[in-house]
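Reopening this one. Same input as before:
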Amino acid sequence: MPEQGEPLTEREKEILQMVATGATNRQIAYRLSISTNTVKVHLRNIFSKVGAESRTEATMIAVREGWVSIEAARTGSLSTEDTALPMRTGTSVAQPQPLTVAPEPPLPWFKRVALVAAVLLTAAGIALTWPRTSQRANAKPNPPFDRLSDQPVAALVGSAGPRWRELAPMPTRRAHLALAVADGWILAIGGRTPEGVTAVMEAYDPARDTWVPRRAKPTPVAYAAAAAIGAHVYVPGGCDAEGTPTQAVEVYDALSDSWDKVRPLPEPRCAYALGLLDGRIYVFGGWDGEQYVATTYIYDPQADAWTEGPAMEPKRGFAAAASLEGHLYVVGGYDGDRELTTCTVYDPAANTIRECAPLAVGRGGLGLVALNDMLYSIGGGGWTSYLGFNERYNPADDTWSVIETPVVGEWRSPGVVAFETSIYAIGGLSSDYMSLNQAYEPLSFRTFIPITNQ
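Same output, byte for byte:
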């Protein structure tokens, strides 16, 4: 087996160029007059040499290293044969009053070809700037709440590699929802639907791949997040149907299926980043109704009290936060002009803030979770950048690397949580509100049973 760092052969470069255009193994085999098995062998060798785990990652590396011509990839043509990516519908198991929804259809082949070009442009670091409506001098900035791109790109939803699994779709199509894990369920709370801001809550059972309804949130909000402490799920603030941020903090008890209120936020907030560490809830930045802010509010459930922490610059909304190894990471976001690559680390024990390596591309409305001593950035993109891949952060060497994505083009504000050994990404916005439910397995686990002769 070739080792990472070995140079590619001319044939391998030729195959990698075809992979960049979206050609299938059978199409490559036909064009080169070789068998599909030979193509697979070449691909395995390519992946080993460049250190990639998928076609997408290999393409990103090839563009970065200059092995693949972007122009050739953009003008490369695909036949309709073998280009459709079939949807896999989750298999439901009987459950009291389950909720179901029809899966969304795959895209036409010509849109898939366009999206391949978009991925290559993103990987090469080419900034795509959308025209924006000019604002009057001194006019109040307006956050891009569900503002579609001026030139929207339809999402490609399908198989993104062996580590993503498509599961039973969420019954209510929505984005900007709060997602949390409590009592063995993944709870999807509130958000924005095609009909507007909702209070609906639906619970997903990963063991049965089934959705059931739960008691609706008392106050309908979107652009909110949730943090679970035991069986209690805290949802601070959020924006109402008019886009006005609120102060109320509502708490759901997963055991009694009931809601209560605790001390409100010091100021109204929505589109913030939410982190949880050592039983305390951290609200970073967000939108206060007039502007993006850099404030940090810390909630102690035991004292039912809020305190203010150090400002988390830059001022932004639509960022994401997660805790890892005693630190809180705040990543990405939108500052009213562009999506950010910013990565900041907050150490509550020392009360210090430092920078970490930036994301490869700007991401606003992303999800961020910690699993297996790594951080995973899922989704984000669509206002000023394209989503061509997700990213994984390794704190040991302060680096981000590429991982696959089940949605290409734009994928704003999905709900993202880690549960057991998987990462779940649910809903989001990509030209329209989505009901998808995808699970990512970062690692494959095997159990070895020793056999001895007696």
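So the earlier flakiness isn't reproducible anymore. For the record, The chain has two domains: 1-83+107-127, 156-440.
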